[in-house]
Design goal:
heterodimer; A: 373 residues; alpha/beta; Rossmann fold; five-stranded parallel beta sheet; 23% strand; B: Aspartate Aminotransferase, domain 2; Aspartate Aminotransferase, domain 1; three-stranded antiparallel beta sheet
Chain lengths: 373, 518
């Protein structure tokens, strides 16, 4: 039997995937680099690739922190950033297929996939990651709304080394999101939640060690959801939005969708993955109704990203005051701007939604935060 | 890299190394039959009830007196803490003067017990009464109580007083919310929750504190109280505080001033004159009594006349020519701690305040602000160091939250790496921030009035050095400390019950050693 490259104990091996064209569009204001035509335009406009350089910084940190064997792709798909790594032979196509092929080849052979790219790369990694190996992103893209990215390339390398060296291998589920670039180039944001991926436990791991013992953010939000579920009014119909926090609430009500809007009454999910029309039909047939939301992504969107089923018509009928927001305090603290955003498509409604709003952050805890249109 | 390095302390940069001993656990030093002192045979076992008699001998280390002393001396040499320069912010680290230690070691305090008749405790009670007067003068409040065992305990006292006050007016069922701010000390929301209130936390805005509009959006008929620090750890004084109090009083709520950050405003503001109904001083930080390690502390809680009936019992009161303990207080919330709290701490704080005098307190407050602004200016010149709300150019009070986020982005060295490396130069590990971190990679130094300009310069010079190292040799910074008693802790075991051991028995079991015979 021929010896496969990196024929070692998979539990110790790091997989490295570099998307060499990630981040090209940012500098030339193309709002992303999904698709060959855009890559060509970006290069023509003078964009210089930097994903490889960022991957190299991450790998330097990985090595510095005592990281072990690495399996990667040839040339600018990884080997340039980690010259000592074992290489998977693969004819590069210069497209997203390279990312997918590498991730497929790594199944069963690595314990963590470290990738350099943005949200689009995260989606490609997730799509090919059949055995759900945990993933971690080196921030190198234009769009990084997903929860799998470390804050800096060095941090990514450190987290990867610490994760592979740890006994517990603690992991979290994180959102993988992306924004439709075509829409965004037309000035309209349209974010989608594509699914969940396992990633080394955060936000501690991703953002750096915290002082003292601190609060357990997961336990606190979990307790908040428990209290909320317990106090739900039996005669009210609740429309529960997408996202990880909401999925955890739905789980307490018998289980629902991660990415969709579900309806619950009397402690049970009664309808799943509703469209705007479905919601409107349920409104016609029911009395008291409420909307339950969480904050989507690092950009702090409350409405208009990934939950467009809550259309201006729906929100108008349910009422601006019948909206509950549940979100971990640590997530609010990590927002790029200390405020929440709404973009329902209806300027007057956005105005009505803006101002100070209370977010449930724990059992018996609310935080006031400004909502900006 | 143009960070100014002062001339004085270069010798100290290279000179430090912690003592390092390969010190075993004391049980492992045991040798059968070895004794510290040999006593004559005590004779037959006295007539004790069977249940009080041990069946097996206790497992104790058998060693000589000098072996035992050497062991603990080695451990103390390897313990960080107040051995170097400690600018540990929010904790207002102060030297605990010998005069306070002398005062509490005197028989008049060391040999008394709170269950003695008050007629035999007049000296201690007089100190309580006099110190009460001093704190009333500093705060404008009408009565203090020293029972709470720390700042959080005093905040809890306030939450309980708030409950009793609204209950006495028949409004408790309606008033179920306490409002605080995200940079107030975390004990405010925690104790409000513990007392059964829902907590509404206000977020910071452009000015470094929440706007009056934000406060107004959160208060109403459900508001029981406001609990705030001013300034908070950003060092920014909220100039609208009187308006805040007016708004909260307008809806029927009480206002509590957490004076954790009192050092910069001592003798400059009186809580009552701002409108607050109650406040709290930490004697173990601001007033020079010892703190740390969860040890005995005192949160001195004071309030205005309308809340006095609800204070914990007993209160020390003047009676005739002397002093008495008033326990006949039917509206009191009861006790938050045994007896009258930690009396030695009260005596130490009293000794400190008497030694300082009113002028001394004012000078100390001004010095602490001066020292912080000097630090702020010099830290601002270090590459990669920024501070919270950099656009606000107003003077900060006694501390400011800074950030090394840029250093982390450039070099991968985090604030924890930098703190670890600074200990290699004889600096006590710095304080980062309460959670949640609203400033990334935070650190919060506080000089107070204690530390000399030379000490402050040295501290900043060390930070400048370490940042420089981060840019040229990040590995050295990331693998620090190199000159400490131990290297970096592997913290993953701390969360693994299979690995930690807090008793000798558990240690033997988890290390796979045979347990000693019972």
């Amino acid at each position: 039997m021929t010896k496969e490259p990196c024929d070692r104990d998979a539990a110790q091996v790091l997989g490295l995937v570099v998307n060499p064209v990630a981040g090209l569009g940012g500098a030339v204001a193309l709002k992303g680099t999904d698709g060959a035509a855009i890559v060509a335009r970006a290069l023509a406009a003078g964009a210089e690739p930097h994903a490889g350089e960022r991957a190299r910084r991450a790998m330097d940190a990985f090595k510095r922190d005592g990281g072990g064997p690495v399996l990667t792709g040839p040339g600018n798909l990884g080997a340039e950033a980690a010259p000592w790594a074992d290489v998977i032979t693969l004819p590069p196509t210069g497209t997203a297929e390279d990312t997918k092929a590498l991730v497929k080849a790594m199944q069963g052979r690595v314990a963590l996939i470290l990738f350099a790219g943005g949200d689009g790369t995260a989606r490609d990694v997730m799509a090919a990651n059949n055995t759900e190996i945990p993933i971690l992103g080196i921030p190198a893209g234009v769009k990084m709304h997903s929860g799998v990215f470390a804050r800096t390339p060095e941090r990514a390398g450190q987290v990867a080394a610490a994760f592979l060296a740890s006994r517990g291998r603690r992991m979290d589920d994180a959102e993988v999101m992306d924004i439709d670039e075509e829409e965004r180039r037309r000035g309209r944001l349209s974010a989608q939640l594509y699914g969940m991926a396992r990633t080394p436990a955060g936000p501690t791991a991703h953002l750096g060690p915290k002082a003292g013992s601190g609060g357990d953010a997961v336990a606190e939000i979990d307790a908040a959801l428990g209290a909320y579920a317990r106090d739900m009014d039996d005669d009210t119909l609740y429309f529960i939005g997408p996202g990880m926090t909401m999925a955890a609430l739905k789980q307490r009500l018998g289980g629902g969708t991660l990415l969709g809007v579900d309806a619950a009454r009397a402690g049970q999910i009664i309808a799943r993955d509703l469209s705007e029309a479905d919601i409107l039909a349920l409104l016609d047939a029911n009395g008291r109704t409420r909307i339950v939301l969480t904050v989507i992504g690092g950009q702090g969107f409350l409405l208009g990203r990934g939950n467009q089923q809550f259309s201006p018509l729906v929100i108008g009928r349910i009422g601006l005051d019948a909206i509950d927001v549940i979100c971990a305090a640590s997530k609010l603290a990590a927002l790029t701007l200390p405020e929440l955003a709404v973009d329902t498509g209806d300027v007057d409604l956005d105005q009505g939604l803006s101002g100070f709003r209370q977010v449930i952050t724990g059992p018996g805890r609310r935080q006031v935060i400004r909502v900006a249109a | 890299m143009t960070a100014p390095i002062s001339n004085r302390s270069d010798a100290r940069f290279e000179g430090y190394h912690s003592a390092r001993w390969a010190e075993p656990v004391v049980m492992e030093l045991s040798s059968p039959g070895r004794r510290g002192a040999v006593f004559p045979d005590a004779g037959p076992v006295p007539d004790l009830p069977p249940g009080a008699l041990r069946k097996a001998r206790p497992v104790l280390p058998e060693m000589t007196e000098h072996d035992a002393l050497r062991h603990y001396l080695h451990l103390s040499q390897m313990t960080l803490g107040m051995m170097g320069v400690s600018l540990f912010g929010t904790c207002t680290m102060k030297y605990n003067s010998r005069i306070g230690e002398r005062a509490v070691a005197a028989d008049q305090l060391a040999e008394v017990h709170p269950l003695q008749h008050p007629d035999t405790l007049q000296g201690v009670l007089e100190i309580y009464a006099n110190f009460n007067d001093m704190l009333c003068e500093l705060s404008g409040m009408d009565q203090f109580v020293f029972q709470a065992g720390g700042g959080a305990d005093a905040a809890y006292t306030h939450a309980c007083v708030t409950r009793a006050y609204h209950a006495s007016r028949g409004e408790l069922a309606q008033r179920d919310q306490i409002v605080t701010t995200i940079q107030s000390h975390p004990c405010s929301p925690a104790t409000a929750n513990a007392a059964g209130f829902e907590v509404i936390t206000l977020s910071l805005e452009e000015n470094g504190y929440p706007s009056l509009d934000q406060l107004k959006s959160a208060i109403g008929p459900r508001t029981a109280a406001l609990m705030v620090n001013n300034p908070d750890d950003m060092g920014i004084y909220n100039p609208e505080i009187k308006e805040w109090i007016k708004a909260v009083h307008g809806v029927g709520g009480l206002c509590f001033y957490d004076h954790a950050n009192f050092n910069g405003v001592m003798t400059r503001v009186r809580a009552r004159e701002l409108g607050f109904d109650a406040c709290m001083f930490m004697l173990h930080k601001t007033f020079g009594a010892p703190k740390g390690g969860g040890g005995p502390a005192v949160g001195a809680y004071g309030c205005a006349d309308h809340l006095v009936p609800f204070l914990p019992s007993p209160l020390v009161v003047r009676q005739g020519q002397g002093f008495a303990l008033d326990e006949d207080r039917p509206q009191s919330i009861g006790r938050v701690r045994e007896f009258w709290g930690n009396a030695p701490q009260v005596v130490k704080a009293y000794a400190w305040a008497r030694a300082m005098g009113a002028e001394g307190l004012r000078e100390a407050a001004d010095l602490s602000v001066l020292a912080n602004n000097y630090m702020d200016k010099r830290l601002g010149e270090l590459p990669g160091v920024t501070k919270s709300h950099p656009h606000i150019d107003a003077w900060r009070l006694e501390m400011t939250r800074h950030s090394v986020e840029q250093v982390t982005k450039d070099t991968g060295c985090t604030v924890v790496d930098i703190a670890n490396r600074m200990t290699d130069y004889g600096i006590d590990a710095l304080w980062l921030s309460h959670e949640p971190w609203v400033v990334p990679e935070p650190f919060t130094p506080e000089a107070g009035e204690l530390w000399s300009k030379e000490d402050i310069d040295y501290w900043i010079d060390v930070m400048a050095r370490v940042i420089k190292e981060a840019y040229v040799d990040p590995k050295t910074v990331k693998t620090a400390p190199h000159k400490g008693a131990i290297h970096q802790l592997k913290t993953d075991g701390m969360e693994d019950p299979e690995r930690w051991a807090t008793t000798w028995r558990a240690y033997q079991r988890k290390q796979g050693m045979a347990e000693a015979a019972e």
